[in-house]
Specification:
Layout: H1 24-35, E1 42-46, H2 53-65, H3 79-85, E2 92-95, H4 106-117, E3 126-130, H5 138-149, E4 155-161, H6 169-173, E5 176-179, H7 185-195, H8 202-208, H9 213-219, H10 222-239, H11 244-250, H12 256-276, H13 287-296, H14 299-315, H15 322-337
Parallel strand pairs: 1-4, 1-5, 2-3, 3-4
The structure holds zinc ion.
């Protein structure tokens, strides 16, 4: 893979990147601010998951660390660019949880604070990327606050968050907030078409992903597609009156947040079908299931299940027993379907 391809590849999280096409406006404004020495020292990138916020953050980091940047992009050749491509640059400090769902701990922030108080090892910018920023626990956020309040020169902070409201107000108020929006449908589809294999349909996938192109790329992978097929089979079996405990066994390996995401988006889509018709449905691949649910469940039942599944999402934080959790969800669904 060439350096320039790196931006579109969601697996190369640490690699250099270019902004995605729908981020051109923000990019242009940043370059302008930079040329006038007005780039805010702390940027908070917000927006739904799957819009490429981290790609944009890495693009800015790379541009600032490049020792010989072109007018609109890094040079890709200087020692800094090469260090970034190798995944290691002494002035690049990406901070993220050790595992998904875990907190960013105060020790990690303190270590970063100590590093950015020293001068840059390569003489240029020092870059801190915090993702997801809302994963900082309260001590970590407080430790960061001090550094944000008294920034060292040429130290750039980029915080990335899907849920900025979960950040302490004190952190938010010290950052300039930049919302990343979804592309319009036509340009989103054009970009997506280049990422998918020919048998995959960018129009259907982009709509199913709520217009979020990187989410659509994710949804096209076998890791997403196989569980979706399995869950669909389980739901259709439940509609026919299958035993929920037996069906729960089939979902043993399912990732719980992903399971709830699917169920909630399918319930919401069934409501759209019920209230507004087929054209408003986001994931048209699921229409046969939606039609079954539409007949079996009232709008009130769909709404009640949706709010229960939202509660279930919150309960995940307490690390519930995986199999019991799935079994309970399926039993609740079966009760509403009127099979019990
Ligand atoms: Zn360079």
């Amino acid at each position: 893979m060439s350096l320039k391809d790196a931006g579109a590849n969601p697996t190369s999280e640490q690699k250099p990147a270019l902004p995605l096409p729908w981020q051109a406006d923000i990019w242009h404004q940043w370059l302008q601010q930079l040329s006038q020495d007005r780039l805010p020292h702390a940027i908070l990138l917000t927006g739904l998951p799957g819009l490429g916020k981290r790609t944009l953050a890495r693009a800015l980091a790379h541009y600032l660390l490049c020792e010989n940047p072109e007018p609109r992009e890094p040079c890709w050749r200087c020692p800094s660019c090469q260090l970034l491509d190798s995944g290691f640059h002494p002035d690049w400090h990406p901070l993220e949880p050790e595992a998904p769902g875990k907190a960013i701990r105060v020790d990690a922030i303190r270590e970063m604070n100590a590093q950015v108080q020293q001068s840059a090892q390569r003489g240029g910018y020092k870059l801190v990327l915090i993702w997801p920023a809302e994963a900082m626990n309260i001590n970590a956020a407080n430790a960061l606050l001090k550094t944000l309040e008294e920034p060292e020169p040429r130290t750039q902070f980029i915080l990335v968050s899907d849920q900025p409201s979960a950040l302490p107000a004190t952190i938010r108020s010290r950052c300039q907030q930049w919302p990343v929006k979804a592309p319009d449908l036509a340009s989103g589809q054009a970009w997506l078409g280049c990422q998918l294999s020919p048998e995959q349909d960018p129009e259907i996938l982009l709509k199913a992903a709520g217009g979020r192109p990187l989410q659509a790329v994710k949804m096209a992978t076998p890791e997403w597609e196989e569980p979706r097929q399995l869950l669909l089979q389980v739901m259709e079996a439940l509609n026919r009156g299958a035993d929920p405990s037996e069906q729960a066994q089939r979902l043993k390996k399912f990732d719980l947040p992903q399971l709830l995401d699917y169920l909630q988006s399918w319930l919401a889509d069934t409501l759209r079908l019920k209230l507004m018709g087929e054209t408003q449905v986001m994931d048209s691949r699921q229409l046969p299931l939606y039609h079954q649910w539409q007949q079996l469940l009232s709008s009130q039942q769909l709404l009640a299940l949706d709010s229960e599944f939202k509660q279930a999402h919150l309960a995940l934080a307490s690390n519930p027993n995986h199999e019991l959790f799935i079994e309970r969800l399926l039993i609740r669904l079966t009760q509403e379907l009127g099979h019990e």
